[in-house]
Amino acid sequence: MTGIRIHSPEGSVGSAAVHRAASPDVLAGLRLVALDNGKPGAERLLGRVGERLAERVGLSFEGVRRKGQRGDTL
Amino acid sequence: MKDPNASDCNAPGAAPNASDCNAPGAAPIARRSGEERSPELELAKGTPEELMELFESRGWGDGLPLVPPTEERVERMLTTGTGDASPDAIVASLPPRLGEATRHRIAVNAVLAGCQPGLLPVVVTAVRALARPEINLRGVNATTHPVAPLVIVHGAAVTNLGFNSGLGTFGPGHRANATVGRAVRFVLMHIAGARAGSGDASTQGQPSKYSYCIAENTAASPWESYPRSVGVDAASAVTVTCGENPHNFHDMESEYPAGILEKGASVMSTLGSNNAPVSSAEFFAILGPEHAATIAAAGWTRRDVQSFLFERARLPARVLRGAFQVTQWRPWLHALGDDDLMPVTGHPDHIRVLVAGGAGKHSCIIPSWGMTRSVTLPLEP
Is the CA virtual torsion A23, A26, A30, A33 positive or negative? Predict the structure, then answer.
């Protein structure tokens, strides 16, 4: 029995307009600021993560900052 | 029949990872020379079972039977009702995968979903709407909320293409509704990459993620068509709003608008809604024809319905403040006293009103995901 050929539903992927900055190889001696995304509990979680990282790798944790509101245009 | 390059699983356009090369039924992808848009797979037998096995192995499809997107079917989809639109033009780049939704690739998904030729322009217009920034598709696809795009078809296309705008418009039994909604979901899964666990983080999902497409019942509406009410003057149009499943409200008693709409307002003003902490959020109030007729018979306009729902869909500010740690409310809402009644959205225009469905005393509210706005576009190929 002869087979059939079908098309893939996925297609190509474009390139991102913005790319992430490269991660530093060594964290020791660097300053870290965490960005709160506004979710409940984010500040507490990120604060703990920052403190742990400071203890482990010797970076300077500068605290958690909040980004502005979005999606509220009217 | 096998392509000579078929052994190259790492070729451009090949399976997402090498392990797919060993998946059951998965003859490696072959790219026909010079055709960027036509990577193909070969099925040895071409049976529905073989297709299901192949697609399941790659994480494609929704678990239900699929129509094989053969060259013949895709070409027919591309050449029916589409004018001279180029199949290779990129209609949209869809996040989170940044997949390039060409008309050809959308047609492949439409065939898979079971669309009849002629429906492609509806799917393409819906994809064009999904790519508009106010939809916020990256968030819609990636959130833990169960949001799904609802496609609403308006105008001449409803009759011409066989959409059901009447009894059971949200339900099964009509191919155009079922397959267009399913095709849009496939575009999101396959091209945008919104698959559960990878690009779609919805905690529980919701049934409307399978298919979510209705049509406006203009003939039974006492008001001007919905697209015209939002400034779109076209023979046919498509609206996309990203929201929850419909929340029904029934009223079999009221002979006046207020009694009906009080129940709609009650459905809107719940603490569980993702809209409650976001004052820019939209609600779609989709009225059954009998409710709409009762409301219009009292002289109420669409604007009156919006105003009444805005006025009555409220909770004490103290209750809302106590329920949410994080809010996106306009400044004037923050200024309300704790005992004041706070509306669950920031403006009457955020309450979108249209008529769909058939006989009976039922209507529904569709809360959005919150940080998304609906889009209405003329139907274009």
Answer: positive
Quote the CA–CA distance of B326 and A62 in Å, as a whole number: 23
Phi, psi dihedrals of residue B96, rounded to the nearest 5°: -90, -15
- Chain A contact present for B191, CB below 8 A: yes
Helix (H) or strand (E) holding A33: strand A31-36
pLDDT in tens, B146-184: 999 999 999 999 999 999 999 999 999 999 999 999 999
Is A14 an 8 Å CB contact of chain B?
yes
Distance in Å, alpha carbon of B23 to nearest chain A alpha carbon: 15
pLDDT at B31: 32
Partner residue facing B70 (CB), from A1, A4, A13: A4
Confidence of residue A20 (pLDDT cuts 50, 70, 90): confident
For chain B, the average pLDDT equals: 89
B13 within 8 A of A12, measured Cβ to Cβ: yes
State the sign of the Cα–Cα–Cα–Cα dihedral B246, B251, B255, B256: negative
d(CA B310, CA B306): 6
Provide mean pLDDT across the span B239-258: 97
Instruction: Give, in order, the Cα–Cα distances in Å from B182 to each of A8, B53, B95, B113.
Output: 17, 19, 18, 6
